[in-house]
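dumping this here so i dont lose it
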């Protein structure tokens, strides 16, 4: 069971953007500007906070969420999708006339029990990594 999945359209866009920009990362914020839109950045251009939570990786792209947003979403699987339109100018897909969109699906009780423990930014910065499917 994974905390984050993606649609085929999101996979195609991530592959295109990776070819254009190199290694990427996604951060699902709970912030202002674009609300809680997933933002895609070249790796290293967004500083992960100590309480940010790694949801998993999609097409070798780590997907992070703010700690406070994770508290609201912890019972929900995030599904990364792509829709037409312009999102925030900070996310690198904006010039392509599309934007990433987060959809959600509530986990069942059985799925919740099967989820791996989360990894937070402080652990990541200290060199800790979850084994298995993510990295």
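and the seq i came up w/
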């Amino acid at each position: 069971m994974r905390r984050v999945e993606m649609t085929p359209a999101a996979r195609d866009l991530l592959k295109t953007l990776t070819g254009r920009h190199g290694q990427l990362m996604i951060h699902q914020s709970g912030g202002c500007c674009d609300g809680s839109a997933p933002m895609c950045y070249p790796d290293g251009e967004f500083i992960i906070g100590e309480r940010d939570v790694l949801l998993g990786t999609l097409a070798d792209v780590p997907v992070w969420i703010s700690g406070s947003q994770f508290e609201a979403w912890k019972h929900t699987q995030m599904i990364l999708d792509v829709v037409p339109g312009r999102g925030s100018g900070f996310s690198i897909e904006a010039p392509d006339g599309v934007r990433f969109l987060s959809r959600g699906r509530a986990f069942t009780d059985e799925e919740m029990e099967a989820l791996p423990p989360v990894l937070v930014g402080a652990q990541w910065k200290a060199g800790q990594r979850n084994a298995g499917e993510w990295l």
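Confidence is low (pLDDT under 50) at residues 131-135.
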